[in-house]
Amino acid sequence: MKPKPLQIPVAPGLTLIGDSYGEAGWPVVFLHGGGQTRHSWRKSAEELARQGFVAIVIDQRGHGDSDRAPDRRYNYAAYAGDAAAAGRWVARLHGCKPAVVGASLGGLSALVATNLPPGNTFSALVLVDVTPRMDPNGVAAVQGFMRAKALEGFGSVQEAADAIASYLPHRPKPKSLDGLRKNLRKGANGRYFWHWDPDFLNGPFPIEGERNGVEEAALAAAGQLQIPSLLVRGASSELVRQDQADEYLGLAKDAEFVDVAEARHMVAGDSNSVFTAAVLDFLKRKLLPG
Predict the structure, then answer these.
(1) Among the four 2, 31, 59, 97, which has the fewest Cβ within 10 Å?
(2) How far is CA 277 from CA 23, 57, 122, 126, 268, in A?
(3) Which helix (H) or strand (E) holds 160?
(4) Prediction pTM value
């Protein structure tokens, strides 16, 4: 299935690159996790398109083919603002508020965005292994992996694949490296680097620079949420404990929960068919009654 390319302006000097799958139907925006790109959603997006939705996958600021932040801002406030702006852009294009599916960074940004003025731009929210409060050790482990080769890079795509296999030993190795190539860029020195701006972690306004502030904003947004939401957790998640999931479910009105067996933080990558089925069931019930 060949997607349609999109360019989504969200701030002065900052345009996000996306792909749209499906010809007609309720729009669903997908926001990836930190260090990933829009291509991590391809299988789910194709299935949603086959089921009558329009799936819009977006590279977030500083990631993939989207612009690097001209002011070097990669804090949660910036990502939440982008999510809200992208939601408004899609709503104008399709004539209705889109649903949003966000993993980790994308999910927390979307949740905070629902509580930003002038008002929520989404019709439904799916959080993928993310809650307002998360296990700090799990967060540190993920960011440690991301930092390890951020500046040095890799000598080959296979070397990058070996690093991922070591970090995610539970996941079967892919038969092809084509998908991984989309998460890498080749530098002038011939080495391969992750396809995200190193300022995301190490710049003057990094993603973890305001952890306490984003927790408070996300908790407040959960308590004010007026749209249906689904929390999809990896049953073996390193970041989201059951008590943290329960806290969100106690705050958010009309919230549902799915635990995906044998999945860790990268739920969509670990068990894509189960994840996609859960998302489709939720969206059809909440957005397409009858």
Answers:
(1) 2
(2) 20, 18, 21, 13, 11
(3) helix 157-167
(4) 0.94
